[in-house]
Design a protein that fits this description.
The chain has a four-stranded antiparallel beta sheet with strand order 2-1-24-23, with no helix packed on it. A four-stranded antiparallel beta sheet has the order 3-4-5-6, with no helix packed on it. The chain has 292 residues and is mainly beta. The longest helix is centred in the N-terminal third of the chain and has 14 residues. It is built from one helix and 24 strands. The radius of gyration is 18 Å and the shape is globular.
Length: 292
């Protein structure tokens, strides 16, 4: 019980504490190319120059040119969602509410994006949607589900969610029926779904054994993929099922169909990045979070 309480406390402290206490961080954009079996990671560029010395995190490519992310803007106390246009080198604020918004994620229809909303008065965390064109105030997708920490869309109806609790758990919920199902407990924050609806997640079996697993909703089966390269829980899933993860300053790749072990594909140490956490990849672009 004490272990679960401490894990819950640390999770809340590091992820959804008062925004003034959130760690300062930057977003670094790289060219990310694969030629045959070799990766090339070059041209590291700081892209949050408008919001230095503050919290910039949870980046997500919505398309080849636009990155949405969570930030605490100057003079603000809570997080909002911002976006950057890489071609025009411009940014804009997407949400501006008294609540805190986290983890912007493009929804399958591409007309809306979903976020974790931390309510100002209660600190309760829910999954909301907002229109891409900013034409509305948004709405609660699952009024009966609270404690949402992270999420990934499986298809237009179903979403996998990390639910904060004792223990943390992975659930699969349907937005049309509002039904939910618990898949497994003791998971990490990394969640990705491929085009076939298979859900990749990190299962924290114990303090020393963190394993990437895959859940198939069609037959309710979980398969083991590979142990994580160190204690890391953030990953990106490529179109060919290759998993990209960071450990320290290094990036690693693993493909469930071809790999026998993790392969180091590059180091970001020359850009001053010592602990790779969140990352997002689209085509030949990679963005990572660098803590200050």
């Amino acid at each position: 019980m004490l272990k679960h309480f401490l894990m819950l406390f640390l999770f809340m402290l590091s992820i959804h504490v008062a925004s003034g206490q959130l760690p300062k961080s930057d977003l670094i954009l790289f060219d990310f190319k694969k030629v045959n079996s070799e990766y090339f990671i070059t041209k590291g560029t700081l892209i949050n120059k408008f919001n230095l010395d503050s919290y910039n995190n949870q980046p997500s490519f919505f398309n080849a040119l636009n990155i949405y992310f969570t930030a605490v803007a100057p003079g603000k106390e809570q997080t909002d969602i911002f976006a950057i246009d890489l071609l025009r080198k411009k940014y804009w604020q997407v949400t501006d509410t008294p609540d805190g918004e986290y983890s912007p994620t493009l929804m399958p229809t591409k007309r809306h994006f979903s976020v974790i909303v931390q309510e100002e008065n209660t600190n309760i965390q829910r999954l909301w949607q907002f229109p891409i064109d900013q034409s509305g105030l948004g709405s609660d997708l699952f009024p009966g589900i609270t404690g949402v920490g992270y999420h990934t869309w499986v298809d237009r109806e179903r979403v996998a969610m990390f639910i904060v609790g004792e223990p943390n758990k992975l659930i699969l919920a349907n937005r049309n029926t509002q039904e939910q199902k618990t898949i497994v407990e003791e998971i990490g924050r990394g969640l990705k779904a491929n085009k076939r609806g298979l859900i990749y997640f990190v299962h924290k079996v114990n303090d020393e054994n963190w394993i990437i697993k895959r859940y198939d909703p069609s037959n309710n089966k979980i398969s083991t993929i590979v142990q994580t390269p160190g204690k890391t829980e953030d990953f990106e899933l490529m179109k060919d099922e290759t998993i990209i993860m960071g450990s320290g300053s290094d990036l690693y790749a693993f493909n469930p169909d071809f790999s026998k072990e993790w392969v180091k594909i590059g180091s970001l140490s020359e850009w001053g990045i010592e602990n790779i956490t969140r990352l997002s990849i689209f085509g030949e672009k990679l963005v990572v979070v660098s803590k200050k």
